[in-house]
Every structure is written in C-alpha cells, then in structure tokens.
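Anyone else keep sequences and structure tokens together like this?

Example one:
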Amino acid sequence: MSETTVHTVLGAVPADELGVVAVYETLLSVLPGAQYAYDIDIDRAAVFHALAEKLRAFKAAGGGTVVDAGGMFAGRDVRLYEALSRATGVHIVASSGQMEEAMLGGYFLTPQTNPPTPWPAEKFAALYAAEVTEGMVVPRVERRGPAGLIATAVTAEGRTPTDESQLRGCARAARDTGTALTFRAGADPVAELGVALDEGLAADRIAVANAGERAAAVAGAGASVIFTDVAAAVAFARAGHAAHTLVATGGAGIAFGHDVPPAAYDQLIGAVPEELRRQLLVTNPAALLSVKPAAVEPAVQPAAKEA
C-alpha cells in the first residue's frame, strides 16, 4: 500500500492505486462566458452520458485516472465529476488555478492597489490554496472536496505581469499545500519555470506543457515535461528523459464555445509503446500527483455529503 495519497473528487486515494493516468486533460471545457450564449445549450444529462462513455472506454482499455487540468472557471463541474467517477469507476483529479490573462474574468483583472497593479500573487495563492485546504468552490453554493492539482497557463506571445503574478501565486499555493503545479508555457518555458522555482516550489512538483524546443532544458532543471504528441513523448523518453516525461491527449472530453481537440483517453494507452507505458502513464503521474507528507491537510473531506 502506498504511503502517499492523491486528492480525487471522491476522496484521498493511495498513489499506487491510480493506475494508468491521463494526466493533462479537460473533461468539460467551456470558454468562459459561453454558457450564457443564446446559441449554446449545455444539457447536463447529455454531457454526463458523453463523458461517461469516454471514461468507460478508458476503463475497459486499462485506464484508471483522468486529471482535469482546466482550473476553476473553464468548465470545471465538481458535482458532475463526482457522479462520473462513481458511475464509471475512473478516478478523477480536479484542479484549482486559472489560465492565461486573456481567459481571466474581469474581477481578476481589476487593479487591487494604488497605483494600479495586477492582482497580487498572494491573493491568487490564497484563493487556490483554499481550494485544497477547504474544498473546491461550487460558485455561490458551497465547497466540495479538495483540489488535487494547481494548474495555470502563460500567454503564448509572452508572459504578462498578470500571468507572472498568477504563476507565482499558483507556485506558492502548490508549495504550501503539498500539491503539484502544471502550467502551459508561453514564449519562454525555462524562464517561466524559473518563476515557479523562485517561489520555493521544488522542481519535481512542476510539470510544463508546450515546452517545445526547450523541453530538454526543462527536464534538466528537474521538472517534468507534458507532451500531447505521443511520438514526441516517446522520442524524448528514449533520449534519456523517461523519468521526466508525461503524456496526455491534451484534449477535451466535450467542449462548448471554442474548438478543442477531442480526447480519446482509451487510445492514449495503446499509443504508448508497452515498454514505456508503466513509466509514462503510471509511475511518473503518481509521483507528480502525490500530496507531500508536509502538506496541509484539507479541512473538507471530499464529497462525503450530497448537496
């Protein structure tokens, strides 16, 4: 039995019981605000059945866990994820954090100081850490179980002051709660990794997506690299970086308001060569997602009660 555990939407699970992990996914992806569009109808029953079908196929192929790395406001539906996990037997890890500046709501872009500056890192850190220690927010209703990951992104064209403030806040939240940090890199993955490291978060608690040509430098600094191209992940692992390689579909189970590649979680398993499958899909994700022993214990036990 593993001595370390992972926060799933249904409770703490021993890390060695996660099985095969799709580590960088979005189960339900909703462009912020799209849910209010006149021509978009998010039928929760239809969404449930579509996602359950994908998760059951993943389970039948040998899958064990799907990580929703979309953060707080890009479609995350904690109650839905709880129901899906119960119905399919697939562990689901949900994340706190938010994406790059352009994806933030106006509240998070409102200057909080005089003279005006971006939302300070300490406010982002407190917001995201509370989702681990007190439970994930169902907006204006309640808190559920603890987030199992902090996730964010950097603007592709280059890091903005708000991006940096949020990245620092995410790193602090991960450091203070014992959870891991994933982020989608922008124009300079190594410098962005340096921002997270500067906050005292250990490199082995960080996974970077979209690292591109700087992947080897990211791995050399001790962080993991997330690939959504299986062939590239395999090549990187075989080049001596297997311990720092993670692979995922990077897609969405279902999306509204924007075009996101569809995720086929079951196909991910067969695409990774058998000799690398355990390392890339089992061992590495379990190490990343394990809550460190010194982490703050969550005050809310995951979804023990029904709303």
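And example two:
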Amino acid sequence: MAQSLTVVETRGQTLPAIRRLRVADLFDALSKGLSDFSAMPSHALFLCLIYPIIGVVLGAAAFGFDILPLLYPLAAGFALMGPIAAIGLYEISRRREAGLPVAIGHLHLSHTHSRRAIVELALALLAIFLVWLATAQEIYVANFGYLAPATIDGFLHNVLFTQAGWNMIMIGNAIGFVFAVVVLAISVVSFPMLLDRDAGALEAVATSIRAVTANPFTMALWGLIVAALLFVGTAPLFLGLPIVLPVLGHATWHLYRKVVEPDPLPRGFEDEHRRPKVRRYAADFPVALFTSFGRAHADD
C-alpha cells in the first residue's frame, strides 16, 4: 500500500492521515467482509429489518396507496441508508479484528464517546433519504401528473415504453447518482471512524471526504461494486439483501482500516484503557480559536 497523505487539522482537531488505495484493496476488503459474515452470520437480523418493510410496502399497495412510483426509489434508498444499518456490523468486525469474543450483546455502542455524533450523522442520512424520495416523487409527477397508475402492468408500460417514462428514468437516475455520490463521500468511512475514535460528526465527514478525494478512481469503483451487489440482492424480491448487506457492512470496516491511518493512541476495549473524555466549555472556544490562528501564522 502506498504511503499516507498529509495529516490535516480542522477545528483544532488533527484529522488522521489518508492512505492511497489499490483496486486489490477493495477485493481484499470484500474477502474479509465475507469472512466476518461466515464467522458470525447476521442475515437473520436483516431479515427482521427488511421483510417488515417489504410487508408495509406491499400492504400499502394492496390498500390502494400510490406506492408504485416509489418502489424503485425505495429500493435505491438502501444504498443511502446502508451505513446506518451496518453500524452493528462494523462493531462485529472491530471486535473480531481485536481477537475479542463477539455476541449479540456486544453490539451496543456504550463503549464509544461518539454516540451523539453517530446519531447526528444518522439523522443527516435520513434527511437525505427523505429528500431523495420527495425528489423522486416530483420527477414522477412532472412526467405523469398526479394520477395514480391503475395497474402494475400499466405502470410498467408507461415507464418502459413511453417518452415520458424514458425521461423519468434518465432524469431520476442522474439525480439519484448525485445523491449516491454525496452519501458515499460523507459516509464511506465516517461511521467506522466514529466507532473507532473519539471524534465529532464534522471530523468524521471531513475524513470521509478526504478519503474519497484522495482515491477518486478506487472509491468510484467501490461505489460501483456496492451498487452492483445491492442490485443483485434487490432484484429477486429483496431475497439477496440479508446476505449482501452484512457482507458489505463488514467489508466497509476493512476498507476504513485500509484507507485511514490507524490511531497512534487507539481506544481500548476495557475501561482502564480508555482515554478520559475531555470536558469542553463554551469559554474555551475563543482561546482555541486564537491559539490555532497564532500557530498558523507561526508556521508561515
């Protein structure tokens, strides 16, 4: 693996160095993700998560709710919400990597001081997901109006064999691609970093964006791999997702390990090894600001 890039400071925090990724690193991360899944299969958890959602969607359609136009955006939304669903998987991989026992009881987040940042970032992704659904609905309305499709066959015919349908497909996929790139950039390593380090949401997002911009080709390829696997898992009535999602979740942890330089003072798993949480006060902000300003001019 190539040498690390320069360490960056932001908001008084030193961000970790970013490594260069090779294509082989992506497939190695997938291999390790599959190994983690094989060691502790978690497909049952995703069955409990995914199939009630499918049941709600099918039930809504059965009672006449206009859900058909949103089926594809909902399926695509798994890629946007996947980092949230995979938090427990990152913890499994983290514990296996450290040689610690892994059980369902270990999947809580009480060990991390970054719980608030995790919630903040999860809410941000949820907001992006809702904006995506609203945007997809507006694209449908712009091409077909507010009239609900009478049948599934009629809906598919309108989408696949009319000019309005092709317009919707092209515009929807183009805008969906933008949403996917944004989510990839801000979340590809941010959630694993928050589990691994004492950091804030902004520091984690900044590190994730730096990881993507430093490795544009390999991260783009990773995004394509994720999209392809999600498509394969979604296509047969979502039957493959209980396997695809856990493997991708575990693989994302190993990708984080490959692209982000390890913490020189890693957080331990036991209480006596944890670093004390630094209490910050509002009055400290001006002092920290002028200190950082003076250090920057001293470097000049």
